[in-house]
Every structure is written in C-alpha cells, then in structure tokens.
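Me: I keep going back and forth on a fold encoding question. No explanation is needed for now; the record alone will do.

Assistant:
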Amino acid sequence: MRLNRFLACSLYALFVVGVLLLFAGRGFAQDATPAEASNATAIDLYAQLAETKSGENLFFSPSSISIALAMTAAGARGETLDEMIATLHLPEDLAPFHEAYGERLEEWNGGECDYRLSVANRLWGQSGFTLEPDFLAVTRDSYQAPMELLNFGGNPERSRRTINTWVDNKTEDKIQDLLPQGSITPLTRLVLTNAIYFKGTWVTQFSEDKTRDRPFYLLDGESEDVPLMTANDQFRYASKGGCQIVSLPYEGDDLEMILVVPNERDGLPELEENLSAEWLDSAVNSLRRRKVELYLPRFKMEASANLNDVLQALGIKKAFTPGQADFTGLSAAQGRDLYISDVVHKAMIDVNEEGTEAAAATGVVIGLRSMPIQRDPIVRADHPFLFLIRDKRDGTIFFLGRMMTP
C-alpha cells in the first residue's frame, strides 16, 4: 500500500465468495436491521484481518460482503443456515430482513442527488441447473438480482470473463478481474455478485495550495513524508477513549467519512483491542459541531485477501466442507453437494482534496463437490488511524480500514 497524489479520488473494493457459506457462534440477533447486522460483521472481519495482516494497511467493504452473503443465506438450510445466521448477526426470521434490504437498495439507487451511489446484484447460473423458485423470488424481489444463464460446464473461462465484464461496468472499470483464473470450473453452478459504486465530493474541500509534504509517524517511531491536506472549518467532532473522532460529510449530507485518530502516535493497537460496533455507534452519536483544524493524508490504498481462513476462523466450517454444507434452499436435488469453494476480496481507496470515489464488488461462487478539549481541537492524522465511510441515514458502513504506513 502506498500513499500517492491523485487528482480523482477513487475507492473500490471487491470481494469474491466461493461456493457456499458461513458459520459462527454468537447468538441470534432477533431484530437486527441490515445495517446492524452488516456493521457487527464488519467489526468481526476487521478483528480477524487486523490479526492476520499485523502491521499492514487494511481496507475492505463490509456492506458488499454482507449483501452477497445475505443473498446466499436465502438458499441455506439446517445447521448451515444456523451458522450463517450466527456469524452474520442475522435475525432468525429472514423474510422481513430480506425485505428490509430491498427497501435500502431502493433508497441507495433512487433519485438524483449530489453524489453517486449505486448497488447492483446479479445471479449467474449454470444453464440447465434448476434453482428453487423461492430462492429466485427472494434474490429477484428483495435484492434486485436477475438471473443470467452461462455455460460453466462447457466454457468456464468465457463465463468468468462475462462476469468480470459486468463487474467492470458496474464499478466504472475500477475493479478488474474480480474472479481470478481458476475460480470458475466445470463444477460451478451459481455465482452471486454484488457491485457498489460511490463518488462524492467533500462538503468542506481541502485546498490544494495548503497541501504540504509532512511526516507521517509509523508505529516503530520512524516517519515518512507524505502529502498532508489541511482544512480549518466546522466539523462534527468528539474526543472519546483516547481518540479524536471527526466526520467529513460528502455533498448531499447522506454519506460521510469518519476518522478515528488515536491521541498517541502508537495508540492504534489499543483502539483496535476495544473496537466494537457499539463503541463506534457511541462515538458517532457523541459528535458535535465545532471548529476543527484538520490534517489528513492524501492517500491511495489497495488491498486483497483470500477470506476462506478468516471466515472459518469466525466459525464458518460446514459451509466450506463438501458433504456437510446444506444448500437445499438453492437446489432441493443437489443442495447437499454444494459448498463454498473460495472467498476472495479486493479493495482500493483513493482520497484527495476534492472527495472520494468508491466501488466494491462481491461474488459468491457456488459449485458441486467433486465427491468429497479546551480550545479548537487540532486533529493530526499523521500517524496510524482508522477510517470508514458510512451512510448517515441508517449507519451502514460501506468501507472500513486503517492507515498504518503510507
């Protein structure tokens, strides 16, 4: 990951899920909304990724992952569904939850506004492979995910390119080759994809004339010079738990970037130890408008990870295990021969004086087993910090990450 000057800020995240889904061991969230379930999953994923990528930058799209997995959960049954519900913090009764996601998708995709936000879903099925009508109805009606038939068995590589082209188009070409070579095989039966695109301009833009190369202090005490942007204006601000929290709203005032900057230059590890969805909610709710002198790096970040081990560490075991996964909600005839083969996630964010552009894509590949303060605060994000982009209306976290090294 490196920090660069870029005229256009762009941020994209992609995520591919291989052939069936998840487990966990946390209890049912009886009345969880899509935002609450997605955000709780975001923190779980962050904790696992932060541990596996110790000392590295981190960035991913929890909302893209959650939407793709929620669609897949519509086809899970038995213990496989129980595991997915627990891990993804879903309610036991999924019907109202799916309907609520449909309402959110309509809001995200509806109308003219001062920013661009679109969320698209699509199913790609093997020609001749029969899917259950109830599953198709849920994905079509709640997730606006029409079905397109492909020839995975006869031409898996061409099918992969077709799906990747759709992702490219839906993310303004920000995501290339979402599905890597070898991810689609003659045994693939279904791929569920999600694509998110966002482009927004800061309400308070940074002046390029004030951007200067200044030190960014690393956890080991060393430093590197990076372009540090400066703004001195009214922001929503709070001080909580040894951190400064600042909201940077985008035009339209529906979405915002939240910065969580530890007071100490080496304070990010302690922040991560205490990080929870409840802590973030409390921090955001405590924000109040006041004059803030803000310093923020202009940065670009790219990240990729195979999430198989991460999801299994969270408890998703049966869904990844041929012969144990139960996806009879997808196919009554062959649902017990389906399983998750792979989960891949890629993400990129590019932030500059003007704003942020973001895109995310998630693919769930399902296949057959082959038999088996006292003054105006100064916030200097010149050392490791946490950041996220969220919907102010319901709290959905679209993107989450940390800046460790420029």
Summary: The first helix runs from residue 34 to 52. Confidence is low (pLDDT under 50) at residues 1-28. The chain has two domains: 11-200+300-368, 203-296+375-403.
